[in-house]
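haha ok so turns out i had the wrong file open the whole time. this is the CORRECT one, sorry everyone. sequence first:
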Amino acid sequence: MDVRFPKIADQLLLIERELRTQGWWDEVEPSAEVLSSVEPFSVDTLDFEQWLQWIFLPRMKMILEQDLPLPNASGIQEMAEMVFAQRNLGGKDRQLQVLLKEFDLLITASR
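then structure:
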């Protein structure tokens, strides 16, 4: 098992908690068609927060549970920065961006 797994698992829980805290957590799963987008971050079918909930978090949890190799790099915080820059959230996104940056750093940390 990769030594980063426990810290990454904790980080995923923090990301989920922040999505819930901000009211960005959906109770109803999007359709299979919506979830089957091939575009990066599913930009054509999902809001960024939905992508985090329905694509990113489940995939990362599967990687950890099945002891699969972690990605070599992550740029999720950069994507969040681009997405949230287009919205006027008054800093509501700040904590989520901090958590995503910490995730990115964990992914690139030496093993």
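Residues 48 and 80 are 7 Å apart (CA to CA).
again sry for the mixup
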